[in-house]
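To whoever is on call:

I kicked off a structure prediction for a single chain this morning and the downstream step that reads the tokens threw a length-mismatch warning. I double-checked the sequence; it's 83 residues and nothing unusual in it as far as I can see. Pasting both halves so you can look.
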Amino acid sequence: MNLWLWAATAFLCLLLPVGVALTYGSPMQRLAALQLGTLGGTMALLLLAQGYGRTDFYDVAFTLALLSIVGSFAYAHVHERWL
């Protein structure tokens, strides 16, 4: 394993507390955890792409980053309307 894969593993381990916040937090804490989880997932994908030398993971990370913005707006819209 190289340094890139160790860093990706660290980012993936940091997603465990985010999952707890998504499960048990208030709605605003869940929105913040959603953003933090997307950031951690994107960074992990970028580090995995660098570690394995696979350029197609860069596309997946870019797509995840773009969809996170849409997902956050959708969550805020639903939270504002129905909750």
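Update from on-call: the warning came from a stale cache, not from the record. Cleared it. Sanity check on the structure: The mean pLDDT is 89.
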